Amino acid sequence: MTATPKAEKERRLTYAQAIREALVEEMERDPSLLLLGEDIGEPGGVFGVTQGLLQRFGAERVLDTPISEEAVIGTALGAALLGVPTVAEIMFSDFATLAMDQIVNQAAKFRYMTGGRTSAPFVIRMVTGTAGATAAQHSQSLEAWFTATPGLKVVTASTPADAKGLLKSAIRDPDPVLFFEHKLLYNSRGAVPAGVDSLIPLGEGRVAREGSDVTLVAYLYMLPRALKAAEALAGEGISVEVWDPCTLVPFDRAGLRRSLEKTGRLVIVQEAPRRNGFCAEIAAIAAEEFFPLLKAPIKRVCGTNTPMPYAPELEQFVIPDEERIAAGVREVMRNAVRSASGS
Amino acid sequence: MVLIRRFEERAAELRSLGYIPGFLHPYIGQEAVAVGACAALGPHDYITSTHRGHGHILARGGDPRYMYAELFARRDGYNRAKGGSLHIANIELGIIGANGIVGGGIPIAVGAGLALKQARQIAVHHPDDPRARRADGVAVTFFGDGASNQGAFHESLNLAALWRLPVIFICENNLYGEFTPQHKHQTIRDIATRASSYAIPGLIADGNDVLDVYRVVSKAAEDARKGRGPTLVECKTYRHRGHYEGDMGQYRPAEEVAFWLEADPIKNYRRLLLAGAICTEDELRALDQAVEQELEEAVAFAKASPPPAPEEALEDVFVESYGGRALL
Description:
Radius of gyration of chain A: 20 Å
Structural class of chain A: alpha/beta
Oligomer: heterodimer
Order of helices and strands of chain B: HHEHHHEHEEEHEHEHHH
Shape of chain A: globular
Largest sheet of chain B: 5 strands, parallel
Number of helices of chain B: 11
Largest interface: A-B, 51 and 55 residues
Strand order of the largest sheet of chain B: 1-2-3-7-6
Largest sheet of chain A: 7 strands, mixed
Order of helices and strands of chain A: HEHEHEHEHHEHEHEEEEHEEHEHEHH
Helix content of chain B: 40-55%
Strand content of chain A: 15-25%
Distance between the termini of chain B: 46 Å
Strand content of chain B: 5-15%
Structural class of chain B: alpha/beta
Shape of chain B: globular
Number of strands of chain B: 7
Radius of gyration of chain B: 20 Å
Number of strands of chain A: 14
């Protein structure tokens, strides 16, 4: 085996750079792949993710669009149906509401309604979550809406390496994939594997931190907060396993089960409002399928059932912080109904 | 046109006999639009259709056997009984699908237009790529007067105009959006005028005259193939029946209905063929009989096709990488 130089193997990139690298590699691999979105060309996207791609691949492949979410998503779908893979960008996932017909009624159902005779291989990149005073129409976490629509795959990338590997898999996937990127993660740094084939398969969760007392499920911006909470709890003698599902659809049931077999306790974190969030689905899976593994009631730590407020103090109150996550874990430790040996 | 007319009349009968569940939106009266437009298209062209889609699909080469089987919700239907009347699609025939959402197919046709524009690039740089064959392709989207009020219509015209995509937007103005007459849902009389907002041509065709539709759509197709971008074509026509099978259409004035029944596209074209001595009465009768025969066989085929097994409902959600099955 040829040794890969360490610098190659462990380059540290930002999340935004990792996404850009995935796009560049996939556009080079497949010369028919197109990018579509508002301001993705010359300005390089509102978060700079697509900077330089127009210069590199030309205006025939990096298509700056008018502010027309419905037409953009329909266009990406129509091109995909004729075998031209596309990555469309929704600048803020809140604006997906303007393209809901094309996402929910058209893209999600095309394969099914044609009896499996057609597929729609395209990706919608959606920028999600809070970013500091971006208020109620630029801060939402709407991923659960799309998980409730059969026919869509839903990816939540939480680290630079995941962002690269999962986006590449999403682009090569034969079905419509919604790819959620969190605003506050764009400048986070991490090791990112080099190489055109550094794919991470959809549908596999990842243990972000090993532990033995509690499984703490978290994704997107809640992942770094959950990791910090886990560090703090380690000081109190609670060993927390942090588990990132990476993709919500398909969901890695086996991965969750493996973690619960170790810990027997489950806390689930999400930034989205509590009611009907994806946490509820994870909790239901655990309760229905893994109940014998559980030593304590399941705990959800979620955003409040409010629109996102503007004031930073209010915004920080609304979404879970490290302390609230840690409190959830402590509660589950206190509420153990069965001892580890007695279950 | 006769095939479409009789296909629909039979479908209505078969529905009343209980063979067809769900909705049917008859195209009767509008046949000249589908036939005239699709006659202007070639093998590398694509269409998106509407809830009133049977005519477009037949005109584009759809097989009545698979269409009836789909309407009957049987396994041999175009969509394995998962689409029904509102969703018949067959990409091989260039049919990207009928659509249950008014205006829903319009942006998708823009995407097809983008893919066809890319095929022109592929043809230059990689002439051996199979997609290069579509280099002269155009995408046609059919929609109604009601859809011309939707955002999808305006966004799509703007985008196609901006990128000079080979797309033909064909509005079938049958004077009613569902139950609402045109003057109650828009202030304009000619929907073609909306093209001027996007600096593209807006042409009007007599939607009850198959030759006029053919002439106008041919012009739009020629422009699109030459890279001159999209055209909006408005075809003035009329829906003989209600919005859907079962709607008696009583909201329409009797004299209006009588006027348009007299302007029937099939009657008109027969008169023209006979007057010009292009066909004889016998030849037209033979054509009618051939249509009856074809539909007779199509109905028998659909009746013989088995219903799907209930658990097939779980298939085709995704591509085979996950077994095509439903996922969480």
